[in-house]
Amino acid sequence: MASVEISGLRKLYGDVVALSDISISIPSGTFYTLLGPSGCGKTTLLRTIAGFHQQSAGQIAVDGSSIEHLPAHQRDVAMVFQDYAVFPHLSVRDNVAFGLKQRRIPAKEITRQVEEVLEVVELGKFVDRMPHELSGGQQQRVGLARAIVVRPKVLLMDEPLSNLDARLRVDLRAELRRIQRDLGITTIYVTHDQEEALAMSDVVCVMEGGIIQQAATPLDVYLRPSNRFVASFVGANNFLQVGNFKGECVLKCCGSSVSQHLPAGPVVCALRPEDISVKVDEDPSSLLNTEISIPVQIKEVSFIGREMEIFATTDNGEAIKAVGRSDSKVIALPVDSRAWFCVERQNLSFFRDSELGERV
Ligand SMILES: Nc1ncnc2c1ncn2[C@@H]1O[C@H](COP(=O)(O)OP(=O)(O)O)[C@@H](O)[C@H]1O
Ligand SMILES: [Mg+2]
């Protein structure tokens, strides 16, 4: 168990700024996830912590001791890779024993530790198999066993589930989380999959362009995104134009005013597709003033089993999407028919309509 403290970390590749002034603080035992689109710097950050890359500036400390000057093998961190990285010519037992042999641990002790860790990852029956006799999910368990058998202070995982099929990915993520909790090992996990990040993490750190956009609990990132990028990357969001009429914030698509203090400058309103209820029979605008109702023209309804997705446009031409429990009345709506999208006022969020797009 160990805490990780990173301050002012920068990494340049030539003149490409891959990481720009990264500072994060990870308490001992935390499952900490770096989430962001491809190219945002996740792998670079992980590999810099591991010591495979040399930082251009900044400090990395584990349990209060600086490690940024140490070579990778002296850092007491272990890494699990996307492509399993198991030795194809070694059995499961020898793959897992590899790191222990390098540390010159006595053979008997190696056997004991290897068997113990293979029980943890539920590969006890496979000790004598070769990697090509294992499924992708089992190979990744070998990768994990190899990483944790040396009892590192920090476990780093770079998209470890992304080569597996969808069903296995969901099973294995629950299992990874269970193992991490049982061992209490501080873990930094990389993924571009927001659902995986929300499901597994104590803290989700959303990155874009080599910069941390927000680091918070999964619920906070989802319910209170700190800027427009986070609001659109984590979960889905509709963004609607807002007008400022005599100091009142008004949604342009329906003329509804919303009590919201507006700063100077342009602002957009965000509402999540799952917070929209679709009404088809009557204009509900006068029924509830805790809600706003947006008249829309239906463009497409797709039935995807338990849920349906409704794509529509507002009267001023903005695209807007709703998601909800399948409802035969809505599914039957012809293209271009009228309906109302209703949202509780408390479910609206506002962001500056600027490059940073901070929450207001
Ligand atoms: N070895 C390298 N040389 C030059 N640029 C690189 C190298 N590795 C990564 N980059 C660039 O750094 C940025 C971050 O990459 P990376 O850390 O791999 O992102 P992610 O893992 O989030 O997809 C990208 O713009 C990428 O093109
Ligand atoms: Mg990567």
The helix-strand sequence is: EEEHEEEHHHEHEHEEHHEEEEEEEEHEE
Mean pLDDT: 93
What is the CA-CA span between the terminal residues?
A: 38 Å
The helix content, as a percent range, equals 10-25%
Number of domains: 2
Q: In summary, what is this structure?
A:
The protein is an alpha+beta fold. It contains nine helices and 20 strands.
Structural features, described:
There is one protein chain. With 360 residues, this protein is of the alpha+beta class. It has helices at residues 42-50, 92-102, 107-120, 136-148, 166-183, 194-200, 218-223, 228-233, 328-331, and strands spanning 4-13, 16-26, 31-35, 57-62, 65-66, 77-80, 154-158, 186-191, 203-208, 211-216, 238-245, 248-251, 257-258, 267-271, 277-279, 291-303, 307-314, 319-325, 338-344, 349-352. The strands form four sheets. It has a six-stranded mixed sheet, with helices on both faces. A five-stranded antiparallel sheet has the order 13-12-11-14-20. It has a five-stranded antiparallel sheet with strand order 15-19-16-17-18, with no helix packed on it. Helix 2 (92-102) crosses helix 3 and helix 2 packs parallel to helix 4. The mean pLDDT is 93. Magnesium ion is lined by residues 42-43. Residues 13, 16, 18, 36, 38-44 line the site of adenosine-5'-diphosphate.
Task: Jot down its keywords.
5-stranded antiparallel β-sheet; 360 residues; 20 strands; binds adenosine-5'-diphosphate; 9 helices; OB fold (Dihydrolipoamide Acetyltransferase, E2P); 34% strand; elongated; alpha+beta; 2 domains; 6-stranded mixed β-sheet; single chain; Rossmann fold; binds magnesium ion
